Amino acid sequence: MSATFEEVCFLLLYERLPIKQELEDFKLSLAQKRNIPENIISLLKILPIDMNPMDVLQTTIPLLVQNDKTIEKPAIEHTLFSAENLIAGISTITAAWDRIRNNKKVIPPDMELGHAANFLYMLNNEKPGDELTQFFDTALVLHAEHSFNASTFTARQVASTKAHIYSAVSAAIGSLSGALHGGANVRVMKMLKEIGSVDKIDAYIDNILSSKGLIMGLGHAVYQTDDPRAIILAPMSKRMGQITNQPQWYELSRQLEKKGKAAFKSKKQREIFCNVDFYSASLFYTMGIATDLFTPIFAVSRVSGWAAHVIEEQFAMAAPKPSLYRPGAEYIGDYCGPDECTFIDIDDR
Amino acid sequence: MSATFEEVCFLLLYERLPIKQELEDFKLSLAQKRNIPENIISLLKILPIDMNPMDVLQTTIPLLVQNDKTIEKPAIEHTLFSAENLIAGISTITAAWDRIRNNKKVIPPDMELGHAANFLYMLNNEKPGDELTQFFDTALVLHAEHSFNASTFTARQVASTKAHIYSAVSAAIGSLSGALHGGANVRVMKMLKEIGSVDKIDAYIDNILSSKGLIMGLGHAVYQTDDPRAIILAPMSKRMGQITNQPQWYELSRQLEKKGKAAFKSKKQREIFCNVDFYSASLFYTMGIATDLFTPIFAVSRVSGWAAHVIEEQFAMAAPKPSLYRPGAEYIGDYCGPDECTFIDIDDR
Predict the structure, then answer these.
(1) Given pLDDT bands bounded at 50, 70 and 90, which one contains residue A322?
(2) In a 3-state reduction of DSSP, which class is residue A127?
């Protein structure tokens, strides 16, 4: 019993699971939107090759609006079209950027492949095998949606002003790029490389404990148990390590999890838990994906959740009158409020 | 007693008014950051000329990160550098885009001019007179900061994930682009043009009242009185109309305000008030600025407020532990919560 990424996208956008013909139609519709405007490729070619891929995504996503003749008509069916355009387009842009920055030719999308396989094909110029495809597809499913996380909240907030979905998704990418959010999977991998081998784990944990630091990937704002996504990712990470003859990354992760949890419990009287980033790092790494693409791949998946939330914000939540997110502010400490400021002319300062 | 836009920027960024030498240094520092990376100009040249200028800004702002070698070091002094880079850069990009889309040559910034005058110079290839400069400068001051409005809240939220300030500002531009937020000044101008002349006002208001519509620019989420900014903008709009021999736009606005307020009071028992967009529309229009640049000009100014809020979010608000904005969700109506969903395999649907 399982669903593909496309099936989950359909569920998120249409709020129900598709029947077979609907899923086939949806997959075709997505595949048809994989080609991106030519000027995005031109832009990618004039960017500095060391530019952060999340900055590249944030800058290029608004350009997908060019593909979209429906944007001036704010209706749910048009926004669903735009959502598909975004889901398809972000995958192509991410793969194209990795090719271009490595001075390789851009691989056009293959209509015959599913979403996960096509992404890996555009990235590597090699059609992936069934197991790799399935693992990557599962990773996309697991990252697709997670309620009101920071980037989704950003997308909804931008959408609440009646800005279009491309603006909302580009903004969400900015939010996801942060080290405390999607950027965490990159930091997990950096940590694993820094530790380097299983015998260095104890010293690493001791250092974390004495410096009041955190072990990356252990801890989450919501879960007080191991993230259910981590439980699915861990065995895939193990298996990919075996297939690619790099078992050390899973092994390092597993031992770090075990020893880290025990150390925090005994020395800090605190339980810590695996989050989604803990095993996705070693999984993506053993798949041969560049470390700084981990967060963009999060975006390649999460765009489906963002799109669903934007649609809910703009259509399903239609309030009696238009409303946007504008919290109040309380001025505390040294901050004087708006009524307490006095202006002194520059000559009298 | 007044302050220039640069003086207000200093106040926002450093939380105090500058003395004369500090202000001179700050102006010079801003002016030195006006040149933008060459590939931004290249990008502008390959965009479709009918692209919405807010989309253009959202897409180009992350590219200013290229100018910024400090971005990897998250310290307040580096973020202040980035803030100046953004305030200077967004002005150059906005003017350059208007030139390029009109097939005119890009005008390099003039170091000798202040921020307001330099923007108008880059836009028009003509140094503005003192009165025009002062009015534009005042308009920038009035738009610079307004507490937790939607775009500022977006910027803070992105910054809360520890994303960098370019990501936060680009996201805020997306939020500002919405029709309910910064996009409103464009809609005010469209409405004025649609009404066309003073004698059509009564019919327009009758139509609004019977269709339960709103008069654009009359109403605000916060103020229950005329927006203090509108009170300053109105006489500038009047004077610009006189100077440029287009008094009709101010006149139309004034009569619409008067009649609209009276009609809502007598027929809806509701008081409505001018917001910042109501007179900025006719002011910018009589300045010869393209209508769809009104919202980008809002951004040219508001970037200073966004930057100040990002700095507060990332440095002044340092909580005991890192935290980001992640609201809870309550599932209501037809929406089942995460615990109530069941998956049915595609063969059984």
Answers:
(1) low
(2) coil
CB-CB: which of B161, B179, B328 is closest to A178? B161
The reply to whether residue B326 touches residue A160, judged by beta carbons under 8 angstroms, is no
Residue among B153, B168, B183 minimizing CB distance to A326: B153
Rounded Cα–Cα distance for residues A216 and B220 (Å)? 44
* Cα-Cα-Cα-Cα dihedral sign, residues B29, B30, B33, B34: negative
The rounded distance, in Å, linking the Cα atoms of A223 and B146 is 36
Q: How far apart are alpha carbons A158 and A299 in whole angstroms? A: 17
Residue A147 DSSP label: S
Q: Band the pLDDT of A318: cuts 50, 70, 90.
A: low
pLDDT over 60 at A319, yes or no: no
**Domains of chain A and any CATH numbers:** 5-179+293-316 (1.10.580.10), 184-286 (1.10.230.10)
Cα dihedral across residues A68, A69, A71, A76: positive or negative: negative
Q: Which residues face B260 on adjacent strands?
A: none
Q: For the segment A223-239, what is each residue's pLDDT rounded down to a tens digit?
A: 788 899 999 999 999 99
Closest chain A residue by Cα to residue B175: A158
- Cross-strand pairs, A284: none
The single residue listed with the structure tokens 């010293």 is A203
Q: How many angstroms separate the CA atoms of A167 and A157, rounded?
A: 11
* Location of structure tokens 């926004």: A79
Q: Nearest-CA distance from B319 to chain A in Å?
A: 14
Q: Say which residue the tokens 């380097």 belong to.
A: A196
Query: Cβ of B175 and A181 within 8 Å?
Result: no
